[in-house]
Design brief:
The chain is built from 15 helices and 17 strands. By secondary structure, the protein is of the alpha+beta class. A five-stranded antiparallel beta sheet has the order 2-1-5-4-3, sandwiched between helices. A hairpin with a 2-residue loop joins strand 12 and strand 13. Helix 12 runs antiparallel to helix 13. It is rod-shaped, with a radius of gyration of 52 Å. The relative contact order is 0.05.
């Protein structure tokens, strides 16, 4: 029984040994499997981290703006590729540099207040001028963003510096355009595609008399020229839509009803659709210039003292009348008038009274003829009257007699009684001549016959 018991004991020990061997092998297998799984997971996480790092690095390096991280010792811990463009430093070279080294003393001194502000936990935004490595100057917008750790302490700050040179240039151009818009002497009105006024400048208000609040949102048609024919207005609109521009002179009225002449230029600014297009109207008040021009033209063809047509305009009108009378077989007459006794009044009472007398005689002559007739002053005390289509010689005689009577009446000028006579020579068309010069010469000759006859008389021209 003892050997049997010994054999059994050995068998149990062997079995227990086999059990422990199996247990250890199994656990080792589980451990190796877990270890392999952990290793694979770590490798996966490493790949993900590397991929994320490359992703973030690509974003940072392809940003047009400079991006960097500065610790509390102002040492660069990260810099993107843009630093090479501005400072000539690669990202690898920039990392580990101090901010003083990278910026230089002058630029660092300018940035120091913002640096200290960021280190105290306050975000900073400011503009700065930087010089690139190629020597060009750029305008930048800098943002210093504090990095605050879980304990609430500032661990450093992120610097994001963007190139805003183009934006600043656009702002400068817009500012200049706005300054021109507000300070130009020409009135400017901008209307939308629906024809409603959306903007006016101060000169617009000064010229038209309307305040901006009275016209904004109103149809631009409220300011359309009041003296504009509908056909002309329609033609103007067609020109604007077809050619994108129109300019010309138009008469308009101010808010108080006063008429004024404006030089107007209208430009069409197309849009993506009819509603987004704009019409820009620029105009200036040229009334005074027009008056001066008209005054100059008036002086070129009129006597400055009496306002009557001068010799130039007389010859032009007489020539036109002769052409018309020749075509239509209608009569005409030229009366050459010379005052009797004017020289004595002018010499004794003075030129002022003499001028007053000439103006009074001019008005008297105008009162004795029809609107279609012409009264002109040749100079001195000589006048000419051109009668268009008198009925006959008898009517011309009546007019001449009436003129002598009216001119010869007593007058009081500046407290002085004056009286003059008048001698009249008459030339009939076509009997006395077929040209303006011939008729004037004939009437002049007849006037001298009237003077020799005793003055205050009229005579017809006889060859």
């Amino acid at each position: 029984r003892i050997p049997v018991m010994l054999n059994c004991r050995r068998s149990a020990q062997a079995l227990e040994c086999y059990y422990w061997v199996f247990f250890i092998a199994t656990e080792r297998s589980h451990f190796e499997e877990a270890l392999l799984s952990g290793r694979n997971h770590a490798q996966h996480l490493a790949r993900m981290l590397a991929q994320r790092e490359r992703f973030i690095s690509n974003i940072a390096n392809n940003l047009p703006s400079m991006l960097a991280y500065w610790d509390t010792d102002l040492v660069c811990r990260f810099a993107n590729r843009a630093y090479e463009v501005w400072f000539g430093k690669t990202a690898v070279e920039a990392v580990g540099m101090s901010m003083m080294q990278l910026l230089g003393e002058r630029l660092y001194a300018l940035n120091e207040p913002y640096i200290q502000g960021a280190l105290t936990g306050q975000a900073q935004t400011f503009e700065c001028t930087l010089t690139r490595t190629d020597g060009s100057v750029g305008q930048t917008l800098a943002n210093y963003i504090p990095d605050i750790d879980p304990d609430g302490k500032v661990a450093g700050f992120i610097a994001l510096i963007s190139d805003v040179s183009a934006l600043k240039q656009a702002q400068a151009e817009l500012k200049l355009a706005a300054s021109v818009f507000h300070n130009t002497m020409e009135g400017i009105m901008i209307s939308d595609g629906d024809g409603r006024i959306i903007s006016v400048n101060p000169a617009f208000c000064l010229i038209t008399g309307f305040a901006a609040g009275e016209v904004l949102g109103q149809p631009s048609a409220m300011l359309n020229p009041v003296f504009y024919a509908p056909q002309a207005y329609a033609a103007r609109q067609i020109d604007i839509m077809r050619h994108g521009r129109w300019e010309g002179e138009v008469w308009n009225r101010r808010k108080n009803g006063e008429a004024y002449l404006e030089w107007q230029s209208i430009s069409l600014i197309p849009g993506e659709n009819p509603q987004s297009m704009r019409l820009v109207t620029v105009f200036s008040d040229v009334t005074e210039r027009w008056r001066n021009s008209e005054r100059i033209k008036h002086l070129a063809f009129h006597d400055p003292l009496t306002g009557l047509p001068n010799r130039t305009l007389l010859l032009e009108r007489l020539g036109q009348l002769i052409l018309a009378a020749g075509r239509n077989q209608r009569p005409a007459a030229v009366l050459f008038l010379d005052l009797d006794g004017f020289k004595q009044i002018n010499d004794t009472l003075g030129h002022e009274i003499g001028d007053d007398l000439l103006k009074a005689v001019a008005q008297t002559l105008l009162d004795q003829v029809r609107q279609g007739d012409t009264v002109a002053r040749l100079g001195g005390d000589e006048f000419v009257i051109v009668l268009d289509s008198p009925e006959n010689a008898v009517e011309v005689e009546r007019i001449a007699t009436r003129i002598i009577s009216s001119v010869g009446q007593d007058r009081v000028l500046r407290g002085n009684p004056v009286r003059v006579g008048i001698s009249i020579g008459i030339a009939l068309f076509p009997q006395a001549g077929a040209s303006a010069d011939a008729l004037l010469a004939a009437a002049d000759a007849a006037m001298y016959r009237a003077k020799h006859a005793g003055k205050n008389a009229w005579r017809f021209y006889q060859s």
